[in-house]
Design a protein that fits this description.
11 helices; alpha/beta; homodimer
């Protein structure tokens, strides 16, 4: 049994999903849908059609699960409910504050049309969320900590690029080692924003630009940098391309808690990711959840779901018997 | 809605479950069942009855979930199927090799009697198994590593105690730092048993015992020590009591894998536990799964389950809406 996957949106994430499908023999790429001219889009997989997004509905019977690879700011809030009319879908909606509203909008459509929609797959939200939930369920008396990095923050890099006389920029979010160690001690410290992460910026300025002004504008930018210890390095365009071309990321989810009749024992649960490619890892998570979505649809378990609703066994290509024999 | 929990077997694990119930306001200890004389068993919770295990069936309507706190060697293989006739049950069966047989025996009884039975809750099997499954589903092209420790191995400590002229002993399993670092590099090394863990033994010998003989018997013991670099320290009974009285444990589950069209990117997923009390942490996992078992029983989803079959949201006292708003 092969699960036929459609990809809607062929950027970094869409290409990542295409690569992930190649690693999972039970998944098969059936079609790519794009908002660009389909003839201008060259994909990696041979003999798979690229269609205009406007033609998607016509191909609904050829796709078991459609993976929506747009952005959370403007694409997914409309795309996920729209396509859940016709398809079982997975998205990676990652605006934490509006997840409940997105869930409700998608659930209404999915329920009405007998489709399964899994939202917010990826690593945060996603694998990090799962680890927060498991750790909280197991250690109800404790404290949670999430650290991000070392990794490239796209939003912060963009914010630097909008400064006058900046040609290009890359911003790394870096967790502070001393804060990580304090958390791992089990002492449940209260940590300020500044104590948890630092920000390191690599900036290509236009020739003759006032570097001191640019540095000051970065370091004092509200929300993005003002609350952090920020380092700014001015480098050449060549150096940026050579040394800062990747999209690495990662982070840590740690919960420490107490057990015992008088809470006399301390426990530390730590989950961490170190990722060479943020979009490819996100895509790999999405591919596993597409398998689960297909299985739920087969069972008739319709509606909107999150990673919290998916029994782990549904993610694996192995049978329940194999999993119990080899992975438990 | 309070979930009424019964504890069968009041040793370290049973006491740990009692402590965990105290931390979860939706769980309530309803009764303890013991193979000892009930009058000789003093529990920590006030106004909760202690009954003989022979009376358990008579109290089946007072218990929503019965937690079986016996051992995997001889207790659980018979207890779990026996009590799944009358109760929804949770056990921590941890003999990995015979989990499939145990599952089948328990499933037959649970299905027939309309009960839910969750086996092998804890951390390995348990939280470690979950992390193996999630990481394998997300990174199909990769390698798995599990390290245990630093922690006390009860089985290895017992093996030392059986040596002639040994009064008492404590054995620590310790992961080798260099092996952990090699794994975290993503190089997918092949590691021998000896390269992954060392064993450190603290031994109280009888007066006048031949210490060289004891040390040699430990270090050459097949299965337990012969394949490891083992260190033996002879200490006094007082020192053992003072410095080695706890039951700490923990470990690491690491998967590294590749993504990308040509597998050009490497990712590291790491989960680790650092536990002051092995039985109390195991008990805390069991308590969360007891909540899930109760909810499955309410839905009529009967039969034997493992951690792989339980949607994460079922473990939490929070509602699905709260979880999506605050933990996703």
């Amino acid at each position: 049994m092969t699960i036929r996957i459609g990809i809607l949106g062929y950027g970094n994430l869409g290409r990542g999903v295409e690569c992930a499908i190649r690693q999972n023999p039970d998944l098969q790429l059936a079609a790519v849908f794009t908002r660009r001219n389909p003839e201008s889009v060259k994909i990696l997989t041979e003999n798979v059609p690229v269609y205009s997004v406007d033609e998607a509905q016509a191909h609904k019977d050829e796709i078991d699960v459609l993976i929506l690879c747009g952005g959370s700011a403007t694409d997914l809030p409309t795309q996920t409910p729209a396509f859940a009319q016709w398809f079982n879908v997975v998205d990676s909606f990652d605006t934490h504050a509006t997840i409940p509203a997105h869930f409700d909008a998608v659930d209404a459509v999915a329920q009405k049309n007998g489709k399964v929609a899994l939202i917010s797959a990826g690593w945060d939200p996603g694998m990090f969320s799962l680890n927060r939930l498991y750790a909280n369920a197991v250690l109800p008396c404790g404290a949670d900590y999430t650290f991000w990095g070392k990794g490239v923050s796209q939003g912060h890099s963009d914010a630097i690029r909008r400064i006058e006389c900046v040609k290009d920029a890359r911003q790394y979010t870096i967790p502070v080692d001393a804060a990580l160690e304090a958390v791992r001690s089990g002492s449940q410290p209260n940590l300020s924003t500044r104590e948890k992460h630092t920000r390191e910026c690599f900036v290509v300025a236009e020739e003759g630009a006032d570097l001191a002004r640019i540095e000051n504008e970065i370091k004092t930018m509200p929300n993005y940098f003002a609350d952090y210890d920020t380092t700014v390095h001015f480098i050449s365009e060549e150096e940026l391309k050579k040394n800062h071309n990747g999209i690495p990321h990662g982070g840590f989810v740690i919960r420490t808690g107490k057990t015992g009749w008088n809470e006399e024992n301390t426990h530390v649960i730590e989950y961490s990711l170190k990722l060479d490619s943020n979009p490819e890892f996100t895509s790999s998570v999405i591919a596993a959840y597409a398998r689960a979505v297909y299985r739920l649809a087969q069972k008739g378990d319709f509606g909107c779901k999150t990673v919290f609703d998916i029994a782990p066994a549904l993610l694996s290509a192995q049978s329940p018997e194999e999993l119990r024999a080899h992975m438990l």
